[in-house]
Each structure stands twice: as structure tokens, then as C-alpha cells.
Amino acid sequence: MTPILQTKTPLHFINPDKDALVADFVGKPLNALRTPAFVVDRALFAKNCRKMHENARDWGATFRGHLKTHKTVEGTKLQLISNVGRASAVVVSTLMEAWGVVQGGLVADGTVKDLLYGLPVGLNKLDDLSALHAEMTKYGGTVRILIDHLDQVKFLEEYERAQEHPKKWSVFIKMNGGLQRAGILPEPVSFKAFMRRVFASPAISVFGFYTHAGYSYASTSLEQATSHLTGEVRLTNDAATMALEVLADPFVLSVGSTPTALSASAEAKLKMTSTLNGTLELHTGNYTMLDLQQLHTTLIGRPQISQKVLATVISYYPGRGSDGLDEAMCDAGGIAMSKDTGRIPGFGEVIGKSWKLGRISQEHGILVQVPPDPESGRTDSALRVGDIIEIVGQHACLIAAAHSWYYVKGSDKVVDIWIPWKGW
Ligand SMILES: Cc1ncc(COP(=O)(O)O)c(C=O)c1O
Fold it and tell me: From ligand 1's centre to the CA of 43, what distance in Å?
């Protein structure tokens, strides 16, 4: 039987402290970690970051890193600085990510100069965003916001009118490309009326048009992902073209999701036939870690996935599953793996074994044997109580968000601990 690790809970597990966690774990092998444990392969994460700099360069775009997947100082640096290039623009999905960037010293040291708050602006967040903007401008940086409704414009104006020194907000107009999440539709009459109102606002300066083709996660080929990428560009470019009829100004066309960004290349650029009324910016986040949802697109292979969850097999149930297959229980459930699903069945794949994470409750994960191989007729019954297994789940962003710190691995040992920014 595998030797069983015993751990006591120190105080810094409750209030994570990087120095104390580094002292506990750096140099330790992965099987010495308390499970469930979220593990990031630093070299693979950095390689994914480097590759995206190449994609942006070859496709002819500047790069904006979305920080929502890892939410860490260390991950931000790898996203922005590689031996291919350097970018200084980020997009965040929470104010805590934004303040994490500031407090992590990334604005003061010039790593981040342009920070976009990537949800349509919440009207109760303007004081905080203003404070953030003041902090960034001290170092020559800027905060940008997203808008997609005229009530936001009205509120920004009222808010600025009440200030001693009113400012103009640099905004991206969020475009709805069919995801039906946020954004306005490029319907010419209503869009131009919207833009006229926005351009007339003393509280706003339009920086560009932004879209995110979340539906591109359904791609199953490079061709489909490239077509979604071209669609994102067409949408933002149509918006810029219509906006130019209202006001002649250069715009930034900001596009991307992991599948479309992975498809950005010199060849994809050649497929864009229309003249662009703006400069291209590629934004993306999940590509740093990757997961089963991205594996299903066929744009990546298993060796590129830089994250996994370690879990311990805590019980075993012979013949309990469908068709008499075995089941086992592990200590990684919904709050270690998320309950996100994808087109690959199950909640996760066990690396190197023919088992899947088939069902999950809050802290329990039910492992199910994969049906017998049709050629050999064999099933994998090699799991034992006490085994440590490695699981790749469906959606890295939500899985990472479930963990209080990440074990960052080198070749076979922990080399660092990253503590993510929590909260909203
Ligand atoms: C507004 C916005 N922009 C960009 C992204 C990045 O997409 P991805 O993580 O697929 O690269 C996301 C992800 O959800 C998003 O919500």
C-alpha cells in the first residue's frame, strides 16, 4: 500500500501566507501534498504564455492578458513578459484582481500600464474604479471600462458632474457576437444612435470595440475556431466602421477567447479580407492553463494542459457502477473541481488511468471505471484506497478559483506557491 501522508493543519492553511507555505512545501514531491491540491506546471504555463505572444505577433495584434484564470502576480508576469515579447495590458473580471495587480507592485514597476475592468461597469463600483484609476495614473497607467447600455453613460455623466475634477472614462463598447451574455448588437440604426449619444458624452472617450466569442468553445477544428476569430474581427470592425460615420477616430478592435486566440496566426490573418478600421488587440485568459473543454476543441493536446488536481482515493466499491463496473471515491468534489461540464463526458479525467470523475457532490468525487476496451475486453482496476491520483477537470478558471493556493511544480517537485486574489 502507498505510504499514507499525515498532516496537521497549521494556522497559515487558514490564512494563506506565501512565505510559510513556501517553507512547508518547496522542494517536496507532489505525493507529499494534502489533497485535494491544485498543481500548476510552471514550464507549461510559461510555454503557453510564450506561444500566445507568438500568435498575437504573427496575427498582427497587440496582446491583452485576461487574469481571471490564475488571478496571481506570478501568472500575470508570465502572461505579459516572455522571450517573444512584452505586453502591458490586462483585463480583469473582479476589482480584487485589479487591486491585486496594484498591490502586487505590477503597476509601480511598469509591468501593467493598461487595465480593463472587463464586465459592463457596475454603477456601484465607480468610487473604487476612480481610486484605481488615480493609483494607476500616478505611474502613467490607465484604467478602462466596458459599457453596453445608455443608462451606464447617463450614470457616468451624473457621477462625474458631482466630482470636483470631472474626468473622462476610457471605454470599450462591448459588442454581442451571439453569446447573449453582454454587449450590444451591431444593428445599424440603434447602434449609430447609441454611438452618437456616447460620442456626445463629456464623461466618455471611446477607446475601441470589444467582443468575446465564448461560443467558440464548441469548435472542434482549427477551421471552425478561425472562422469564429474572423467573426469576432468582423463584428468589432463593422462597429468601428459604423462609428466612423459618426466620428472619425481610430479605434482598437479587441477580440479573443481561448479557441479563437489559439487559431490566430499569419495564415488566419491572410483569411481576413476586409479593410480594418482600427488596430487589432487579442485578449485571452484560459490558454495559460487549459483543460478538458479546450482539449475537446482539438486545438490543443493533453501535454499542453498546465494544471491538474491531485486527489486521494478514499474508498472503493467493486461492481457498483453501470454494467457492473467498479466505482471508487476520492476527496475532490464540486468545491475542488467545480461542477462545470463540457462536451467530454464527466467532471474530469484521471491521468494515466482508465477512470473518470463521473459524479460529484460538494466534497465527494465518484470515480467510475471507463467501459472495457473493446479489443482487449479489459478494464482498469488498478485503483486502491490510499492512492493519489491526478485529475484534469473541465474548466481551469473555475477549478483554480476553488483553491486557496496553487502548488507550482518544476520537473517533479514543488518550486513555488502562488496565492490567488479572492473576492469580487
Ligand atoms: C469578457 C471576457 N473577455 C475575455 C475572456 C477570455 O476568454 P478565454 O478565457 O476563453 O481566453 C473572457 C473569459 O470568460 C471574458 O469573460
Answer: 23
**Choice among 36-45, 110-119, 138-147, 244-253 with the minimum mean pLDDT:** 244-253
Cell numbers linked to 383: 485503483
Give me ligand 1 centre to Cα 178, in Å: 14
Q: Tell me if 16 sits within 8 A of 401, measured CB to CB.
A: no
How far away, in angstroms, is 212 Cα from ligand 1 center? 6
pTM summary value = 0.95
Q: Are 388 and 351 in contact (CB under 8 A)?
A: no
Residues at CB less than 6 angstroms from ligand 1: 66, 91, 118, 212, 257-258, 261, 283-287
Residue located nearest, by CA, to atom 1 of ligand 1:
118
Distance CA 313, CA 366 (A): 10
Domain ranges of the chain: 11-41+297-418, 42-289
**What is the fold of 11-41+297-418?**
Lyase, Ornithine Decarboxylase; Chain A, domain 1 (2.40.37)
278-334: pLDDT as tens digits: 999 999 999 999 999 999 999 999 999 999 999 999 999 999 999 999 999 999 999
